Each structure stands twice: as structure tokens, then as C-alpha cells.
Amino acid sequence: MRPMADWLEGFIPMKQHALIRFGRWHDILAQSLPEDEELYCVTTAMMRYARTVALANSRDIAGAEAERELFFAARDRVPESRMIFNNTCRDILQVAEQMLMGELEYHKGNHEAAFEHLRRSVEADDNLPYDEPWGWMQPTRHALGALLLEKGQYEEAEAVYRADLGLDATLSRACQHPGNVWSLHGLHECLTRRGETVEAAHVKLQLDKAVARAEVPIKASCFCRRKAAA
Asked: Are 95 and 124 in contact (CB under 8 A)?
């Protein structure tokens, strides 16, 4: 591992994306951090990111703020040579920074500041060099759209979901996620809430097919959303 760390270590914390994807806050916080923080520098930074998000969503704001500072310190220890295929891990961690800042500010009640951070996370994610699989695994638009919906900002949320699904000309094909259950759920809710019936029926058919393959209930595009939109 050590001689190839620059090319391999960055893949180890991919698990954190899955835990955040499904809102496994307790499981995130129960994990042990690496003992060798120099060798596992990306893993440490990503786990600090995940812990910040988990604490923010668990309403432990003081804990999340302390974890945020530990994330910054861990991020700064990642060398430029550390890569995930075409992307430097430091560039990837810029997405993490804006994501955790966005979720933390949102759960502190600073919603507009939160949305600005989440929009920056989307921009940083979109600007990562093309890769298969993606350098950043969980689409950043899913958190932005979910929290916009929760605050009743349906117009922007709808645009966010359309772009993610590739239903407009906003994104290159490499940045789209056609047919994904998360954005289909969000788009269908947006259409329903503004009283659209024709397109909503077509989207519902796609959503039903996607939900049929899901192993957990899908109630929003991100588990960071706590309740139905106002």
C-alpha cells in the first residue's frame, strides 16, 4: 500500500459516500479513524467530512463545528500527489468542504448561506475532470435540491433536478445522472406542488420503475432533509 498510496489510498473512503447517501449518521460516528493519518490522509479527511455532516444532521452543532476544523486540518495534510484517477484528492476535497459547510449552515438555520455553499459544491463537482467512476460519488445537486424543497423554493429545486437528470442542456453528459430515483422523486414533487399534471404523470411512471428497484424507502433526494416541504 505505502509505495502506491498516491494512486490507491483515495479509494478507501468511498464507503463514506454510501453512509451519507443513506443517512447512516450513527454508523459514521461509530467508525474508528485511521491510526496512521499520514498514510491514510485522504481517508482521514473524508471521514472528518462525513462526521461533520453526521453531527450537523444529528443537531450537535457544536460537535459539527469542532469536526469542521479537524476536517480543514486533515485536508491541508493531503499532498498534491494524491490522486483518484484523473482528479487530485485536494480538488475532490473542495467539494467536501462546500458540502459540509452547506449542511452545517443549514442546520444552524442560516439557510441562504447554506444554499450558497451548496451551489459552490455543485460548481466544484461539475468542474472536476471527467472520470469513470466520478471523482465525487454522491451528486451534489441531490442535497441542494432536497433542502431547497424543504424551504419551499420549488422553482430552483426543479431546475436542479432537471439538470441532474439530463432533461435540459445545462450539463455535459458526463455530469448527468439520467433516470436516478433521487432526482426523479424531487422533480415529481416539484411538478406536483406547482400543480403540473401532464409531465408529472410521465415522471411518476419513471419514478415508479426506479422505486421498484430500491431497497429502502425514498422520501427525498437527500437524507439531510428532515420533513416535507412547507
From this structure: yes
pLDDT at 230: 56
Structural contact between residues 72 and 34, judged by C-beta atoms closer than 8 angstroms:
no
Note the pLDDT tens digit of each residue in 8-49: 999 999 999 999 999 999 999 999 999 999 999 999 999 999
Burial bucket for residue 119 (CB in 10 Å: 0-12, 13-18, 19+): middle
- Please give the span between the terminal C-alpha atoms of the chain, in angstroms, as a whole number: 50
CATH of 141-230, picked from 1.20.1260, 1.25.40, 3.30.750, 3.30.200, is 1.25.40
Angle, vertex CA 175, rays to CA 169 and CA 180, nearest 5: 95
pLDDT above 90 coverage of the chain, percent: 95
**Of 111, 177, 185, 89, nearest in space to 139 by CA:** 177
At 87, list the grid cell: 482528479
Are residues 157 and 197 in contact, defined by beta-carbon separation less than 8 angstroms?
no
- pLDDT at site 173: 93
CA triplet 103, 31, 60: central angle to 5 degrees? 35
Sequence-ordered alpha helix ranges (H) in the chain: 5-8, 14-21, 25-30, 41-57, 61-76, 89-108, 111-126, 140-150, 154-165, 181-193, 198-212
User: What is the Cα–Cα distance from 125 to 88, expressed in whole angstroms?
Assistant: 13
Q: What is the pLDDT of residues 164-217, one digit of tens each?
A: 999 999 999 999 999 999 999 999 999 999 999 999 999 999 999 999 999 999
pLDDT at 54: 98
